[in-house]
Task: inverse folding
């Protein structure tokens, strides 16, 4: 509890000024009116947390101030304590309403809670005019001393979202589209193009030209060798050059915290099931407490998993239908998501360096014994839309191929 109390004090001083005075920063010269950014007092799920504000460290506020140092017209202020009373479980609409009462265009809402022996901070950005969440950033640490670096990373992401930064960091999300001479292709799930792989037990696939209906029964369990169960479609072709690939998905039976992942990715190396495989993939996961080593909350999340960087870019997911998107431009890999609920516009999950060689493609749904909750799960993987300079035929065969 002492650790939580110290962390509460630290975080509260990182997200707002001690005297509740207004902090005036600089904004883009082409803005005709100020951008008003309110900061909510920390919301904690621990009834024992107190209001010790004596700690002087102010990592998040200072980082946002530095990011806005070259701009004018951005007004960052604290949600007054006399305003609307918010709770840990306040809805996005309630948060947005509180922001509007103080004239905020955007509201930054920090949370504190515990996951096992970890301290977790979550910082949400609310668009007050549309009463919706724009983004949610997380960091976790088992030791208090390691939080400075994590909060600095969160601050950079918030600054980017609020357009406080300039230059390359303010990169706009490019909408899907084909350059001149490049076709947009919807790839059918045909045997000539894909190898279908089943791992473990209790998995069932119903395949149509444009859909993979994947079902796990409540007794599904791991493959003894690969320690996972699931169904995958692995390409017999390779993609060369730049690409932009979108996977449509629908969640038909999707119990809370069921542990299942769906996703799309690229790989190279010694094959999809090889131990020396290099890969980059974007996923949606229904995370459980067993996943807390890499997802610092329970429920649905988008994330990126790569051979080089491991789990990155974790952000909340919602809705029952959506799209997961991956792209490569030169040697830069990017992953995006959107869904029919809170993330209706493309959001960047994570970006990193990538290999420039031809890459194979895969999609699928999978789970593990340690996090499966023994309930039926069904997901539909729909269209895979590909924009690529060249798709090259290459045969792949796997001993776990699914028999029709």
Result:
């Amino acid at each position: 509890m002492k650790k939580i109390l110290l962390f509460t004090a630290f975080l509260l001083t990182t997200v707002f000024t001690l005297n509740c005075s207004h902090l005036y920063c600089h904004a883009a010269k082409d803005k005709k009116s100020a951008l008003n950014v309110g900061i909510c007092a920390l919301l904690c799920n621990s009834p024992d947390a107190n209001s010790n504000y004596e700690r002087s460290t102010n990592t998040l506020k200072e980082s946002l101030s530095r990011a806005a140092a070259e701009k004018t017209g951005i007004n960052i202020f604290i949600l007054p304590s006399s305003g609307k009373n918010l709770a840990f479980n306040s809805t996005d609409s309630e948060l947005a309403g509180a922001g509007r009462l103080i004239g905020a265009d955007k509201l930054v809402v920090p949370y504190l809670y515990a996951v096992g022996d970890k301290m977790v901070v979550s910082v949400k950005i609310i668009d007050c005019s549309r009463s919706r969440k724009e983004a949610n950033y997380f960091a976790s640490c088992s030791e208090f001393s390691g939080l400075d670096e994590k909060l600095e990373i969160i601050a950079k992401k918030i600054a980017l979202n609020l357009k406080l930064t300039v230059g390359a960091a303010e990169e706009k999300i490019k909408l899907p589209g084909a350059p001149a001479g490049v076709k947009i292709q919807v790839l059918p799930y045909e045997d000539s193009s894909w190898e279908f792989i089943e791992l473990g037990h209790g998995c069932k696939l119903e395949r149509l030209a444009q859909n993979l209906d994947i079902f796990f029964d409540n007794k599904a369990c791991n493959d003894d060798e690969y320690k996972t169960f699931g169904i995958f479609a692995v390409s017999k072709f390779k993609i060369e050059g730049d690409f932009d690939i979108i996977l449509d998905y629908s969640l038909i039976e999707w119990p809370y915290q069921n542990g299942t992942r769906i996703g799309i990715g690229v790989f190279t190396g010694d094959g999809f099931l090889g131990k020396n495989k290099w890969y980059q993939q974007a996923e949606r996961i229904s995370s459980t407490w067993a996943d807390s080593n890499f997802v610092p909350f329970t429920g649905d999340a988008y994330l990126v998993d790569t051979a080089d960087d491991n789990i990155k870019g974790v952000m909340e997911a919602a809705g029952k239908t959506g799209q997961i998107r991956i792209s490569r431009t030169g040697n830069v890999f990017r992953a995006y998501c959107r869904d029919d609920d809170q993330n209706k516009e493309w959001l960047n999950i994570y970006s990193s360096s990538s290999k420039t060689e031809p890459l194979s493609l895969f999609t699928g749904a999978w789970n593990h014994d340690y996090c499966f909750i023994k309930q039926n799960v069904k997901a539909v993987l729909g269209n895979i839309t590909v924009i690529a300079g060249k798709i090259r035929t290459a045969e792949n065969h796997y001993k776990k191929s699914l028999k029709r």
Observations:
- The chain has two domains: 2-170, 184-393.
